[in-house]
Design a protein that fits this description.
By secondary structure, this protein is of the alpha+beta class. 58% of the residues lie in helices and 11% in strands. The protein has 9 helices and 6 strands; from the N terminus they run αββααββαααββααα. A 4-stranded antiparallel beta sheet has the order 3-4-5-6. Strands 1-2 form a two-stranded antiparallel ribbon. A hairpin with a 2-residue loop joins strand 1 and strand 2 (58-59). Helix 3 runs antiparallel to helix 4, helix 4 (162-228) packs antiparallel against helix 6 and helix 7 packs antiparallel against helix 8 (440-474). It starts with 11 loop residues before the first helix and ends with a helix.
């Protein structure tokens, strides 16, 4: 009698032999010579290390972080309400959240690639079998039904880390999207605060313009009385009349800017019907700001963190692309029922199954893999240089705002003295005119100087508050990195300190 066949698979030794040969032959495709050309800028190279040197306007030093809700320091309930509404309803923030959701979906897809895949199929078919084919009579030349009910499974064994690196790249992209959303929140809050300060500046400018009109109306009344008394000529009367339309035009121009600024704030808070009250600049408290740049400036900015996570994602993309140069090993199998004739599908004899490895080895692909790796390497260079540009801009941004605040403070001191002198000169010119010792042209000249100084005073006060807002944003707007981002920066620093 013939020995009874068993169902034990006999492919295992041969499979591992093929795998070993495939591993040896994998040198046919090589990624040698393809390396990134860019390097990350360090905080020390920007003057932000613990032993930092001079950076534009001051020394880098340890400094307290900005409060996450820094706008409360201005002491204005209206501003607080507008920013809270914007952070809740802004379409731009909802777009950022949607991007995070999309990135998280990519993480789920990358994680699924690491796990076994199972699918099922049911195939029912009516077929005429050829008379000159594989099947003999009575099947040949007949019309018959066939059926297959089967489950198929496969599992790609990630020996070389392709899917692991793809998952890490997707995680990096997700964290970059999360940091982008945080940066968008900071930017939105700062834009609303700046627009609110602009509205307050215009409110004060309107008061200056209205005060100027009232002053000119009083002067015109004086000139008219003097003209009626024969003490002034028609020239002085026409000069005083001509100054009134100009003052009214300035009031209208400022009122237009107030209305446009209200519209801008309403758009930022995503409420076209939002009631935005114009308040004077004096209603906003100045925010105390730190003198030097903080040594950990880059770690406080969400936009820098986002750029750094994109570098990390691009690094993992390269490692995943390198894994394509190695054999792709799959374990595939199936189990199910198949029969010629639907009525026999569920009989025990219809059972079929199979399992075995599948190995794919890149030997010659006309340079496709190397081209793909070069593309990923270029993406990494782009991400690194984008990061470098971001950190340079971050340092410049913070240094610029500190320099502006110092300069504005000095300008305000000088301007206060200039305004006092201009008002004194105007009073003297007006008194001389009333006494008949000067012309009305002298009064107009002195008045123009006072008007210019008053406008400059309001502008400098508005610029000071605006620069404070921009400095809060430049210092990160109160954003703090999570543990993963802090660990990422710590790992990078450790690599640089190694000999």
């Amino acid at each position: 009698m013939k020995p009874e066949r068993t169902n034990r698979p006999r492919f295992a030794p041969a499979a591992w032999t093929v795998l070993a040969l495939a591993m040896l032959a994998s040198g046919c495709a090589s990624y040698q010579g393809i390396e990134p050309q860019s390097t990350l800028r360090t905080p020390e190279s920007l003057g932000l290390g613990k032993a930092a040197g001079t950076v534009a306007s001051g020394l880098a030093a340890e400094a307290a972080p900005v409060n996450a809700e820094w706008w409360h320091a201005f002491g204005d309930a209206g501003l607080d309400r507008l920013i809270a509404q914007a952070l809740k309803d802004s379409p731009s923030l909802k777009v950022a959240q949607a991007r995070i959701a999309r990135a998280r979906a990519a993480v789920e897809a990358a994680h699924a690639a690491e796990l076994p895949q199972v699918s099922g199929e049911l195939d029912l078919q009516r077929q005429r079998y050829t008379e000159n084919g594989l099947f003999p009579p009575p099947i040949a030349g007949s019309m018959r039904n066939s059926a297959t009910l089967q489950a198929n499974g496969s599992w790609e064994l990630d020996f070389f880390g392709k899917h692991r690196q793809a998952l890490d790249a997707a995680l990096g992209t997700t964290r970059a999207a999360e940091a982008d959303a945080d940066a968008a929140r900071v930017l939105l809050a700062s834009n609303i605060a700046r627009a609110y300060i602009q509205l307050a500046r215009l409110h004060d400018q309107l008061q200056v313009a209205e005060r100027t009109l009232a002053q000119r109306q009083a002067s015109h009344g004086l000139v008219r009385d003097r003209f009626n008394a024969g003490l002034d000529t028609a020239l002085e009367l026409r000069q005083s009349e001509g100054s009134l339309p100009e003052a009214r035009q300035q009031i209208e121009a400022v009122a237009e800017q107030i209305e446009l600024t209200r519209h801008a704030i309403a758009a930022l808070v995503a409420d076209p019907q939002a009631a935005v009250e114009a308040k004077p600049l004096a209603a906003l408290k100045p925010v105390p700001v730190a003198g030097p740049l903080p040594a950990d400036l880059l770690g406080r900015r969400a936009d820098v963190a986002a750029a750094r996570w994109r570098v990390e994602a691009a690094t993992h993309d390269i490692r995943s692309a390198k894994a394509d140069f190695y054999p792709n090993i799959n374990i595939a199998g199936f189990i199910g029922l198949s029969s010629l004739g639907v009525g026999k599908l569920l009989e025990p004899g219809s059972l079929q199954w199979g399992v075995g490895p599948a190995i794919h080895l890149p030997i010659f692909d006309a340079g496709r893999l190397r081209a793909g790796l070069r593309g990923k390497t270029a993406d990494l260079d782009i991400a690194i240089e984008t990061y470098n540009s971001t950190v340079i801009d971050a340092v410049k941004d913070a240094a610029d705002q500190l320099a502006s605040l110092r300069s504005i403070a000095r300008q305000q001191k000088e301007e206060a003295d200039a305004l006092s002198s201009a008002e004194a000169a105007y009073d003297i010119a007006l008194q001389r005119y009333r006494a008949g010792l000067g012309t009305y042209l002298n009064v107009l000249t002195a008045e123009s100087s006072v008007l210019q100084q008053r406008r400059l005073s309001v502008d400098l006060a508005g610029r000071a508050l605006d620069a404070q807002v921009q400095l809060m944003r430049a210092l990160g707007g109160g954003w703090q990195p999570d543990a993963r981002t802090a660990q990422l920066e710590s790992n990078e620093s450790s690599k640089k300190e190694q000999p």
